[in-house]
Every structure is written in C-alpha cells, then in structure tokens.
Design a protein that fits this description.
Layout lengths: L19 H13 L2 H8 L3 H15 L4 E4 L2 E4 L1 H30 L2 E5 L1 H8 L3 H7 L5 E5 L12 E5 L9 E13 L5 H4 E4 L2 E4 L5 E4 L5 H9 L8 E4 L2 H9 L4 E5 H9 L10 E11 L8 H11 L4
Parallel strand pairs: 3-4, 3-5, 9-10, 9-11
Antiparallel strand pairs: 1-2, 5-12, 6-11, 6-12, 7-8
Helix pairs in contact: 1-2, 1-3, 1-4, 2-3, 5-10
Length: 307
C-alpha cells in the first residue's frame, strides 16, 4: 500500500525557520554561560534572551542548556550547536569585514564639469587627501547628462538641464558671475569715471560655446547693450578664461572658476560678481548613508565650496 505521507517526517528540514537572532542569543548565552550577561552584551533584556533560546530549543526539539540555580550549562547538544555557531558567526564576521574593507577600498568616481574640475576642484585635492586619506577618489571630466551605470558614484553638475527625478540632489553652491580680465589690461577694457564703470566700446568680449548667452545675460542684468562689440569665440569655457589671463580680452567668469586667479593677481573683476540664478549640485543615485565614504566626500565638498 502506498501513501503520500510515507517518509514525510524524516524528510522535514530541521531548523528551516531558525531565527538568526535566536542563534545569536544562544551563542552569547553559551559563551558566557549566563542569560543575564548575554542580555547585557546584546543590549537586550534577560527575558528576551531566555525566550529566544527557548524558542530555539522548541524548534530543534532538544534541550540546549541545563538550568540550575540561576545558572545555565550546555548540554551535549548545546555544545555541538555552540561549536557550529562559533564557526558560522566567525565566517559571517570575516566575510562582512572583508566586504566592508572592499567597499572602503573601492574608488569613489566623481564626475565634474571640466572647467570646474580644472580651476576649482583639482587645486583643492591636496587638502582633500589630507582630510580624507583613506578615500580613493577618482576624477572624471564630464558635463550634462550622465548615467550611474558607467561607474559614476557622484556627479557635480550645473542645474541648467533636467536630470529627472530618479537622482538624489544636494546643493553645492550658487553660481555668481562677472566680467574678468588681466589686471594690466584693465584700463584698456574698462572706463572708470568717478567710480562709475563701463566697458570700452572696443573691449574684446571673449565668448564660449558652452555658455553662449553668458555675456547677453550679464548685460541684461546691468541694463546695457553690448551690440557691435568685437568678439572672439572659444569651444570651451576654460579656453576663454585662459585667454583673459593672457590679456587677449575680457571674459565672463564664474566666481568658483576664477577665484584662485583673482587671489593670485592673475585676474581682476571690475564689476564684481552677481548671482545668475543657477547653481551647482551634487548628484548621487541615492542619499548617501551617514558615515559612508560618499557622505564624507559630499560633506567635504560642501564645506569647501567657499574656500
């Protein structure tokens, strides 16, 4: 006679619903031979540990401890399980430590717009390395749209395009801009009459293809017209700024891009700097967990955006 129930009991997977928390309570109690000390080490109550161990015994169908006069002693079954849990938790601890170390050693890939990378971030790398020596930071030049699938961990982008709603964004700094030129060329490019300043009619305006409306927007904010002025165009922002440093003409300079050159006396900003309504943001796939390498990088960048 055949039956579907033959062998059902013997084929049951013993402990298939064992709680990892219950095993941890058992391992702590076994190592200290005390539910009270185990509870203290796990920041639990005595009752919680006792119940977890009792549930484990009920699941296994064997006694793991002999309970005598407020003390507990391992049974033969308990000693066997204790050896197994020591090995298992040892493997888990080693593996998690290895994974943690791999995460710490893994590079954080920071994508940054080229001009900001060259003129603001790279000059501050020595300070970054001194502050966060254990973080492996790799820099990649890039602008506009990007994907985290290419390995990027953090991206610095100007908020002049829509990056969608699937990214976490934090403000890095508000953009401020103003005309800049070589100090020795100031009198040739700017007229100063009793504190009232305006551009010479023949001042060469340096334009960049990456911000083609920069001069127009600045002139509109000043209520002036720049029509019929001599112009020179460059493919990239850093070319126009370098041309200004060389004394070729006068360029629109974002504060963060030119602040070091102004401090070094390579450029002057005769009209100062004004907010242009844009800003730079730090983009990540998700909000960085507190204390993580990414969170430390973001905090450092934000704290040094004005230095």
């Amino acid at each position: 006679m055949k039956t579907d129930h033959v062998g059902e009991k013997s084929s049951r997977k013993v402990g298939r619903q064992l709680s990892l928390g219950g095993l941890r309570c058992f391992e702590a109690a076994a190592s200290k031979e005390s539910f009270t000390l185990a509870a203290q080490s796990l920041s639990l109550t005595h009752g919680a540990v006792s119940r977890a161990v009792r549930a484990l015994e009920d699941e296994l169908g064997v006694a793991l401890f002999e309970r005598r006069h407020r003390r507990v002693f391992l049974t033969p079954a308990g000693r066997k399980l204790y050896q197994a849990t020591q090995q298992a938790f040892g493997i888990l601890e080693d593996t998690t430590q290895e994974l943690y170390q791999q995460a710490q050693d893994a590079p954080i890939v920071l994508s940054c717009e080229p001009t900001l990378l060259m003129r603001w971030l790279i000059p501050r790398l020595p300070a970054f390395q001194e502050a966060l020596p254990d973080i492996n930071l790799q820099l990649v030049a890039g602008g506009g749209a990007f994907s985290f699938r290419d390995g990027t961990t953090v991206a610095i982008r100007r908020n002049d395009f829509d990056w969608g709603s699937n990214m976490h964004s934090e403000t890095l700094f508000i953009e401020k801009v103003g005309p800049v030129c070589k100090p020795e060329m100031l009198d040739q490019f700017v007229v100063d009459k009793g504190g009232e300043k305006y551009l010479h009619d023949d001042a060469l305006l340096l334009h960049t293809a990456t911000r083609p409306h920069a001069w127009h927007d600045w002139a509109s904010s000043q209520g002036i017209s720049l029509s019929n002025r001599p112009q020179q165009h460059f493919d990239h922002f850093y070319f126009s700024l370098q041309a200004a440093v060389a004394g070729i003409g006068i360029a629109i300079g974002p504060w963060q891009h030119v602040r070091d050159d102004i401090k070094a006396g390579l450029l002057v900003a005769p009209f100062g700097f004004e907010q242009d309504g844009s800003g730079y943001c730090l983009l990540t796939q998700h909000k960085a967990p507190p204390g993580s390498g990414v969170a430390k990088v973001i905090a450092w960048l934000q704290s040094n955006s004005d230095s």
